[in-house]
Design a protein that fits this description.
The structure is a homotetramer.
Chain A: E1 6-12, H1 20-31, E2 36-40, H2 52-56, H3 61-72, E3 75-80, H4 89-99, E4 110-116, H5 124-137, E5 140-141, E6 147-149, E7 156-157, E8 162-163, H6 166-186
Parallel strand pairs in A: 1-2, 1-3, 3-4, 4-5, 4-6
Antiparallel strand pairs in A: 7-8
Chain lengths: 187, 187, 187, 187
């Protein structure tokens, strides 16, 4: 029997047009295993800052849109830079909004985390903080292989939005295969 | 010789009008030791999401205003809720912006962290993530006494913006004394 | 069809005879759902400190014994105090040893974490550090309900090795039910 | 006026004879700035596992010896590998023991953390966990420059117990200068 086809959504933690992490996110669909579709979520930059007073008047439409897309997906791939040794505020804000939705889109949802950074640790510190948030959200986060792209400026082709380093493209491909298997088993 | 007078600024991590942490922040000036002035920073809710493309066109005036106030202060008190077992996105976003200023307002700056939450852990998880960001910013964070206000709805008077619980008011007062001594020694 | 019966092993992070966490660990078998057996692992206090030079001469028999028991179990319940805002050295040492075994006993293994402490945060900080180790070990850690027993001296009966507080006994019971379901689904 | 001379002690987190971190620790005295002496602490491998029942009968002599040496030093340099994405159990155990001493040797003590690892993240994850323990111990931990030696097997000469990579030796030298200034200012 063929593997069940899967649909993943990708959330990008950076707003910058020339973002290294945007390159990674853009490269994912072409690296996905057969039967796996990866779609970008709408930009999280259009969300207001989380404010319970705004929530009390009704969730912004974009929050519901993000929540529905996550709820309907077989898994969420978060691709993010690290800011100040942690999760970017703008990404955390998106999670803060989605977490308040009554249908808890992240609950039981397979999640895959990737980070790229021009420096030595490749955004790893942001990933462990994000994993802690996922405990509260009751998501199921893939353990391995971790995608921590150090010195990313030398491994990514920003112009072509591709992963130019073979070893990096390889490990990302393996991660997507592992995530597909993980989502099929645990999702 | 009298102690050197000190001027602290307080940054609030919640936007909600009825926020428990707003009550704590509002209560601080009256609990400060003699010679210590505590002023609220402008709301971080008016910042755009951090975006390097915006930064490239010039820092928003509010970022510079926050940076100057922090740079000029003898210490920064951060009062924040915990969202999803970590720092609220809106607070992290403010830090992400300020961290990019060329004059590095947080470098060598004494920092004091407080959190309140209606639930069992009082926002403690957010504090340790925030401390990790402060390593990168090269700030000096007070260790003790930690202000972790659990079950805060029963300890705060939202109407009067006061700390109604004696033990809580006491420990916050002691924290401010410790922070003043810390800022005088290490700032 | 009846649920598949399960066999869990419990690892205790404290050596002290009158340990609060020992009370919790001892109370588990009687609170387990039908069809679930919980057995204590041998004391981790008899392990040497991890030393790669010792390993090079052969794993101590107790390491193999722990590894085999974990490998053969349907899940591992770790019950631990928090020391210095993190995992006790003695518990981490046991994990350090087991992690070196060639058959990777924790890989894909359902894990449940509980902590008790006489103070305000109930050992929560140790739990999040332990969860980070479990990422490397590729274990599957239950998210909810978290068992964080604050002010544990008032909720446990050390003499009778029982959980005397109703609400605590209740949440531990619910946790074991959730862990059984989790192990059946993901193990 | 000449700088005050300083005496630091170094604590090693690995027991292995050929440990990469042992090479780093051994290399420190020769890289210390003028007026700064660095002495190795006794091996932490000879401590028993922390057990409150042992403590109740009296601290082991080695615990007191470690505590006295730390208490008497102007700063503590911890050099450690990372095991399972966190602090080695054996190192944490030493800290767990010392933390119980009534004279709190780490309180107000300048602390410097270094890690080396053969792999991509250089032990960084252990450092942030260790920093969290230092909050409880009320130590003052140097922020920068962080010493995270990635791919350490290529940068260290195990035979000669020296740092063979120029850039690594340079940053360690700068770290020791920064730590001396930090200890003089904050100790």
């Amino acid at each position: 029997m063929a593997d069940r086809s899967l649909s993943f959504v990708a959330m990008l933690g950076s707003l910058r047009k020339g973002s290294l992490n945007r390159v990674v996110a853009n490269a994912l669909p072409a690296l996905a295993p057969e039967g796996v579709k990866i779609t970008a979520l709408p930009s999280i930059g259009d969300l207001p800052h989380y404010d319970a007073d705004i929530q009390a008047e009704g969730f912004p439409p974009l929050v519901r849109q993000l929540g529905d897309a996550i709820k309907g997906a077989d898994g969420v791939i978060i691709v993010t830079p690290e800011y100040n040794y942690s999760v970017p505020g703008v990404l955390k804000n998106a999670i803060d909004w989605v977490s308040r939705l009554p249908d808890t889109p992240f609950a039981g949802k397979p999640v895959d985390i990737m980070s790229a950074s021009p420096s030595i640790l490749g955004g790893a510190r942001a990933q462990y903080h994000l994993r802690q948030s996922m405990v509260f959200l009751d998501a199921l986060v893939l353990n391995k292989p971790e995608i921590i792209i150090t010195f990313a400026a030398q491994k990514l082709d920003i112009e072509k939005s591709k992963i130019s380093d073979d070893a990096t493209r390889d490990i990302v491909t393996k991660n997507l295969e592992a995530f597909a298997a993980f989502a099929r088993k645990h999702g």
